[in-house]
Amino acid sequence: MYSDIETKRDGGVLDPERIGRIVQGYTDGKIPDYQMSAMLMAIFIRGMNTAELTAWTRAMINSGEVLCFSGQGPYLDKHSTGGVGDKVSLPLAPVLAELGIHVPMISGRGLGHTGGTLDKLESIPGFRTDLEVPVFKRIVDESGCCIIGQTASLAPADKKLYALRDVTATVASIPLIASSILSKKAAAGISGLLMDVKVGSGAFMRAFKDARKLAETLVALGGGLGLRVKALITDMNQVLGRTAGNALEVIETIEVLKGSGPADVVALVEEFAAQMAVLAQVAETVEEGREKARLTISSGAALARFGRMVEAQGGDAGIIDDSGRLPQAPLSRVFPSRRDGFLQKEDCARIGQAVVALGGGRRRLEDKVDPAVGLVMKARLGQRLSAGQPLAMIHYRNEETLPEVEEWLKSAFVIGDEMPDVPPLIHDVL
Amino acid sequence: MYSDIETKRDGGVLDPERIGRIVQGYTDGKIPDYQMSAMLMAIFIRGMNTAELTAWTRAMINSGEVLCFSGQGPYLDKHSTGGVGDKVSLPLAPVLAELGIHVPMISGRGLGHTGGTLDKLESIPGFRTDLEVPVFKRIVDESGCCIIGQTASLAPADKKLYALRDVTATVASIPLIASSILSKKAAAGISGLLMDVKVGSGAFMRAFKDARKLAETLVALGGGLGLRVKALITDMNQVLGRTAGNALEVIETIEVLKGSGPADVVALVEEFAAQMAVLAQVAETVEEGREKARLTISSGAALARFGRMVEAQGGDAGIIDDSGRLPQAPLSRVFPSRRDGFLQKEDCARIGQAVVALGGGRRRLEDKVDPAVGLVMKARLGQRLSAGQPLAMIHYRNEETLPEVEEWLKSAFVIGDEMPDVPPLIHDVL
Fold first, then answer.
1. Chain A residue with the nearest C-alpha to that of B172
2. Of A208, A210, A359, B120, most Cβ neighbours within 10 A?
3. ipTM of the assembly?
4. Which residues of chain B have a CB within 8 Å of the CB of A35?
5. Nearest chain A residue to B33, by CA
6. Best interface-test mutation with A: which of B34, B36, B170 has the largest number of A CBs within 10 A?
């Protein structure tokens, strides 16, 4: 290990076989934390080339169980680097299932300003995301899609490495991020992945060049692992859709599947479904894929599929026709614009922090989440507003949370006299 | 700590007050190894500026006891970065004491190819280097010089940091080396230090630019700490003097003090003594210092002073007139040149490894050292040799050690037809 740390420290290239022994040795406890943290810092600063990164990720995959689906494929997943109001996975999974794509989706929880797919789904009464692997596999094959949380048996090296990175300032490294994402996805037995790399004020990557670099790294690493990866760089400079908050986002999901969803969420669901249809060879062109995806929605088939998934995972499918069955915040209040002008900018991370302050997100992984609270956004970037016109509706439970929530919101919106350039929804497709 | 690691990771500058808390927190066990190793790797790659390094070193000094001498000063020390055959400290200490400079010298043991002053002195029957601090201080004030090993009470942060650096490939960092050296020296209560930075095939620094960088860093750091540091960059491309091996080097020390030492050792003793005399303001010029130093040797005063130091430290001063009282290897054998030609190059590290293979050095810190074995060198760089002419005399105890010893020596000497350029003994004075 010592000479390997030296090699990476000095910007050299590690031998793939040695990398396998390093990752395995660390997972087994033979390599101590203090050596791995020196190695991680050297990797953070010096980087890894594709061959190194492939070997590193493969070793992470091989540190645990690798799922194998026995049914007719294809098995694909979609993963987002996280944002505010990003509920795309919820409507996308049943749309894909209707296109004949199996979706064994392993998702995460919200942390900091970003929300999590699991928290959103768990706002549905009875919905379980902690299913055992055999149950997960059965639901994927029977219902076409199933969304659960990370299991301890898949890529255990990632859990141990992530915990160490989290305390040694080695999280924000593109190769380490890419290996963390793809190791878990590849271990879940999929053959292809659509990566939604978010960029902007509410994303992990604020600069386009970083997002582009991560997207390129993910595509290249996917190639090395034999996993087909399509990456889209999409905008996170404003809340995606109209809602940020767990139950509120489930309601919006149902609106999307009923054909009345907000344009940006609908556009991403259709684009992702179309790209994945081509990846899975169930459509010849993206345009054909987009048409087929639209049909799954307009026919009501994707909505019905969503209901079957909810039921299969123990949830109350009655929410589809009666959103009153979802948790509802007892109180609401308008957050108004203080002046006339154009909505020029949103600091989306601050809006996410407002949701956390409401109790709808987590500061620490062990925090509990209130499924009912959240924000309904009332303005889009570039929109003209009058003083007093609502920017958002705050759905809250406790009066005491409001001062911090409003503090975050006050600093989140920039309203000015000039019409701003509004960023495109999709920045790039790799 | 997390944000401090981030700062250094990204090449930023750490706040001096934060540095104090980091070093103290690590010494106290409040900061775990895995965070400190990430920090050390970030420092290794990104470096530290003089203000950061001064704060880091000061915190190391303050992690333990700081000695305070109550007698008439000045109190100075000399430190070498280590080499093969470097016995200069042994004759230098009594020469300095004769010049009126007190020398509280805290030295190290040999490790790997480099020898250690303590091991050399301990070949003198009865000589003790593990004296308690009060005894050490008394001998310095009474005998003018005393040479002991590192004590646990001085700069304990260094011991803990060094152990971590040793297993995380963060040893060879110029700021970390400089802080390790100067923290221990400053804690010993001296007001000035002569640093002998070795460069060449037997030195830690093989390239002149690295040696120069370390020397500059030491001088600047000394300035920050209020410690006058003079640095000389001296040659380690051949064994210093004629001997490499513990008792053999004591014998050579006595020769130097008797006026019959080899030219290179004598030159360094005189030059160092002269520079330190100027530093301590007991001479106005280096030339005056050199003259005074020569006089301490030609008068026999330095030899007598050496005897008093040996006695004060429990050793048998009878070795001065009877080297037969020192341990002697039972066997010896010539190592000959295999061809005619000029001695063009010595790989001094390999010669040091030959001494280790004889049992005269350490592979690991816990190894015991055989004081009797070693090499007597028979040729200098640039010398013309005939095939069969001795390059060295091997003084050994066990036949079984010889194959490895000869293997090292065979690969250590380059003999060729061209007269080589011989490097100067002193490369630079800072």
1. A6
2. B120
3. 0.74
4. 37, 167-168
5. A34
6. B34
Q: What DSSP state is assigned to residue A334?
A: E
- The CB-based long-range contact list for A204-213 (8 Å cut-off, 24+ gap) reads A204/A81, A204/A82, A204/A114, A204/A172, A205/A81, A208/A233, A208/A427, A210/A174, A211/A427, A212/A428, A213/A174
Q: Give me the residues of B, 75-114, that contact A with CB < 8 A.
A: none
Instruction: Name the token pair of B337.
Output: 């040149």
Q: Check CB contact of A41 with chain B, cutoff 8 Å.
A: yes
Task: State the Cα–Cα distance between residues B206 and A28, nearest whole angstrom.
Answer: 38
Residue to mutate among A36, A37, A173, with most B CBs inside 10 A, is A37
Catalytic residues of B: 79, 158, 165, 180, 184
Gap from A358 CA to chain B (nearest CA, Å): 27
Cis ω before A74 (30° cut-off from 0): yes
The rounded distance, in Å, linking the Cα atoms of B26 and B33 is: 8
Q: Exactly one of A4, A86, A119, A158 is catalytic; which is it?
A: A158
Q: What is the pTM of this model?
A: 0.81
The answer to whether B242 touches B263, Cβ cutoff 8 Å, is no
User: Which residues in chain A have their CB less than 8 angstroms from residue B3's CB?
Assistant: 169
Instruction: Reply yes or no on whether A184 is catalytic.
Output: yes
pLDDT (tens digit per residue) in A212-271:
999 999 999 999 999 999 999 999 999 999 999 999 999 999 999 999 999 999 999 999
Q: Quick: pLDDT tens for B174-223.
A: 999 999 999 999 999 999 999 999 999 999 899 999 999 999 999 999 99
Q: Does A5 touch chain B (CB under 8 A)?
A: yes
Residuewise pLDDT in 10s, chain A (430 residues): 899 999 999 999 999 999 999 999 999 999 999 999 999 999 999 999 999 999 999 999 999 999 988 777 799 999 999 999 999 999 999 999 999 999 999 998 887 888 899 999 999 999 999 999 999 999 999 899 999 998 888 999 999 999 899 899 998 899 999 999 999 999 999 999 999 999 999 998 999 999 999 999 999 999 999 999 999 999 999 999 999 999 999 999 999 999 999 999 999 999 999 999 999 999 999 999 999 999 999 999 999 999 999 999 999 999 999 999 999 999 999 999 999 999 999 999 999 999 999 999 988 878 899 999 999 999 999 999 999 999 999 999 999 999 999 999 999 999 999 999 999 999 999 9
Token match 């795309």: residue? A88
